[in-house]
Amino acid sequence: MTDLSSGPRPLPSARLYVERPGFWPGVVLLLAGLAFGSVGLWHLYHDLRLSRGGVTTLAQIDHAYSTTARRRDGGLSYRHYMDVSFRDEAGQLHSAVFQVSQGFYAESRGRSGVELRYVATNPAIAEIEPGRNRRFGSVFGLLGGAILWAALLLLGHARRQVSSRRRAVEAGEARSATVSQHQTWGKKGKARLHWQDGTGLAGIAVPRPAADLPPPGSTVTVYIDPLQGRGYWSGDY
């Protein structure tokens, strides 16, 4: 085993993060969680405004209709809508389109009018199906929270992996190791380098183009995390 601690060390780059297995799934889940959570908060905000400053009136049903879409399993899904118009307390006419549940649609379709609740200071915030904003807000909010939790777990794991690699190259022992083999990875001409040092410590590098890897039997430099004892090939940085 050769101690190479006095030699120059590579500088950690951004690929330390992006090459972690959980990084990109974590980012995708983070964005999805924020999107679902935002939709949930939007609905809950409207529900709060309606419960605190809502005014009830009778709206005219101008048009009731349904749309269909083909599901992946081959079945059909239906969405139900109602176009309504109403006047606020000042007598100004407003119109709005609401998506409603199948039950509410079936119950209200034959009527000429439907009860509507709107915010007096902002009639654009309105609801014809009682509790729909609260239900949607709760569902989307819980779903967004669960997705965000999963994202934070993945990103937290990736962060711990990066911290180990940074400690290794910044403060860990540098050793010589022997390339034991290349393991083919994926279908894009990449491979993972396997190495082992004189103490018997072994490691596997992240995928790289196979043509860029030092051949089996050659000597490479690895850095050892002083806390976890794991080693990382210098080419990983």
Automatic annotation (TrEMBL):
Top-level taxon: Bacteria
Keyword annotations from UniProtKB, A to Z: Membrane, Transmembrane, Transmembrane helix
TM stretches of this protein: 21-45, 139-158
Name of the protein described by the UniProt record: DUF3592 domain-containing protein
Lineage: Bacteria, Pseudomonadati, Pseudomonadota, Alphaproteobacteria, Rhodobacterales
